[in-house]
Each structure stands twice: as structure tokens, then as C-alpha cells.
Amino acid sequence: MKIRIFMLAVLFSLSASGVFAGWEFVENTKGDDAQTDTQTSCIQDNKMKFVTPDHIMLVDVDKNTVTFADPKRKAYWTGTPEEFAAQAQKNMENMDRMIEKQLSQLPANQREKVRQSLVQEMSRRFQSSPSKIEVKAAKQSDKIAGHSVEKYEVMMNGQLRQELWIAEDVKVNKDLDIKKYGNMMKSFQSPFGRNDQDAALSSPEVMEVISKGWPLRKVDYDEDGYPEREEVVKVENKSLPDTVFALPAGYRQMPMSELFGTTP
């Protein structure tokens, strides 16, 4: 009897200490081109990993670092979100010079029209922070990957821009500091203007909803109402080895401009 009680106590302590913590998600993404892409995401101990056939992204919330990798070239860049944003600003300036060089090859009567079109497009993509973000419970439910989910709508200046279908039994907030993660996402955009969808994702209103559970379905809408849908098809709660959150051996570091192909 004493041995049985001891074994039960050990099992309880292992469970309580988080040995079985960690989450792995497999999700499908479908845009307006009807093409479906698959991504695997892992979360544990304030670390995240996102993997597609073309990209790998690692996030270490405690260290405030992010790593982008290209598995085809076995190359990566790593740094803080602030360093990423500063380098992105520099890359945009390089892009401006590249655009001006291309425009100079156009006839003078076409040059200004094309320039204005590009400026308008950039303004749409990287605008100032939205004046109002509101999250509403839509009172709709569904079942995704075996989990019950509730729908929330993210309104930006009164327009529907995002749906979040939250599974409250997927307690990712035990493995991820949602507030810290939200602050990291803000740091990506602040120096050079914020993309509206990214601003919504990192807003306190959205972070509050995500703290209740994890979105197993996410639908983003652009300004014209075209959707991009991400849906989890498999959820596993299990302990993940540290190697999951590291790049494979043999990857070489390179400048961000070279990794993303923005060198003039």
C-alpha cells in the first residue's frame, strides 16, 4: 500500500512539474488562390517554433530573440525584434532606391503615375496604428481537431479584419507568457509603421482573448474582404526535447538583407 501511495505521489509531482507540458500543432493555411500550405508549430517553456517547407522561425520569449531560417539554403538570421525592425527599416530604404532606379527607366509621363500607385500600396500595408481595435464574442461554436472552440471577431475601425476560434481547453498560456509575447510582436513593427493585421495580433484586446485558450482557426481579412484561413488539424500536448527549438546542424548565419533577398 505504501509503495502504491508513493508511486501515485511521484506521478502527481511529475504532472504538476510540467513534464508533460508542451504543445505541437499541425495547421493548414488557405488563401484566396485556393492553395493549401501546411505548417507545424511547437510551444514550450516560452519558446516557439514554426516550420513550413520553405521557412523556419524560432522565438525565445525569455531571451527576446527571433530566428528566421531558410532550410533550402541552410542559412539563418537571428537577433532581437528591435534589431529586426531596424534592419527592416534599412532594407525599405534600400528598396526605395531600387524602385527609383527602376522608375528612372520609364518614360517621364508614366513615372509619376507608377510612383503614386506604389506609395498608395505601401501606405495601405504599413499605416499608423489603428484608431480602434475591438474584440467581440460572436456566440458561435464549432469543433476543431477534437476541441470545442468559440468564435471571436476582431474589428478594426469598425471593419471585420480577423476571426479567432478559441479552444479554452488548450492552455498554451501555461507554456507561453502571452503578455511578453505580445510585447515582442509590437517591437517588430514600431520603428517603421505597423501592418494593421500585426497590430491587431499584438493588441492588448487580442492578447486577453488568447490568454483564455489558443486559436485553432484564424481567418484574416484584408481591406477588400478577401480571407486567408488557418486551421489546426492536429493538436498534441506532450513534452518536447530542447532540440525541437534549435536549428539543425550545418546552418550558416547571414545578414538579414541577404536572407530575405533585399540587398540592392
Question: Main attributes?
Answer:
264 residues, outer membrane lipoprotein receptor (LolB), chain A, 7 helices, twelve-stranded mixed sheet, alpha+beta, 32% helix
> In which range does the helix fraction lie?
25-40%
**What distance lies between the first and last C-alpha atoms, to the nearest angstrom?**
74 Å
Q: Which secondary-structure class do the elements indicate?
A: alpha+beta
**Order of helices and strands, N to C?**
HEEEEEEHHEEEHHHEEEH
Q: What percent strand?
A: 25-35%
CATH classification, class level of the largest domain: Mainly Beta
Give me the count of strands.
Answer: 12
Which whole number gives the mean pLDDT?
A: 81
CATH architecture name of the largest domain: Clam
Report on the structure:
The protein is 32% helix and 34% strand. It has 264 residues and is of the alpha+beta class. The chain is built from seven helices and twelve strands. It has helices at 2-16, 81-103, 108-125, 178-189, 196-201, 204-210, 256-259; strands at 23-30, 36-44, 47-51, 56-60, 65-70, 75-79, 133-144, 147-156, 159-167, 214-221, 227-237, 252-253. Mean pLDDT is 81; it is low at 1-20 and 190-194. The protein has a twelve-stranded mixed sheet with strand order 7-8-9-10-11-1-2-3-4-5-6-12. The chain is globular and about 60 Å long. It folds into two domains: 23-83 and 128-260, Lipoprotein localisation LolA/LolB/LppX (outer membrane lipoprotein receptor (LolB), chain A), CATH 2.50.20; 84-126.
